[in-house]
Amino acid sequence: MNQLLVSLPNTLHHQLTVLANGEGISLGDYILYALTRQATFAYTSQPLSENNIVQQQTSFNALCQNLGQASSDEISTVLAEREVVEPEAELSPDVIKRLQKCIAEKSIS
């Protein structure tokens, strides 16, 4: 375990002490709990409200409408100019073939 020396303003120290006492744990344990909770919260997804989802969908639809559609020739030109890279190691040759087939079928239609 690593150690970290932190200087706290008096008011924050007092607030954390009160919260720790309210939980019946030491100040150090409470600070560890609070930091862990904050770090975990940063990596979890939060559900969106129905209103937020509608707003995002509206914005996305407006963006798609403003961008328009590319013609088959424009798509072919862009694809021909793209950088060729090695596939990720996790992709098996079978998966790569299936993806290439799917892309080819989409290009024809």
What is the H-and-E element order?
A: HHHHH
- In terms of DSSP E residues, the strand content is under 5%
Number of helical segments with 4 or more residues: 5
The averaged pLDDT comes out at 89
Radius of gyration: 27 Å
Largest sheet: none
Low-confidence stretches: none
DSSP strand tally: 0
Q: Regarding quaternary structure, how should these chains be classified?
A: single chain
Overall shape: elongated
Helix/strand class: mainly alpha
End-to-end separation: 59 Å
Helix fraction, binned, reads: 55-70%
Layout of strands and helices, then pairs:
Elements: H1 10-23, H2 27-42, H3 50-67, H4 72-81, H5 93-108
Helix pairs in contact: 1-2
Can you walk through the features of this model?
With 109 residues, the chain is an all-alpha fold. Helices cover 68% and strands 0% of the residues. It is built from five helices and no strands. It has helices spanning 10-23, 27-42, 50-67, 72-81, 93-108. Helix 1 crosses helix 2. The chain is elongated, with a radius of gyration of 27 Å.
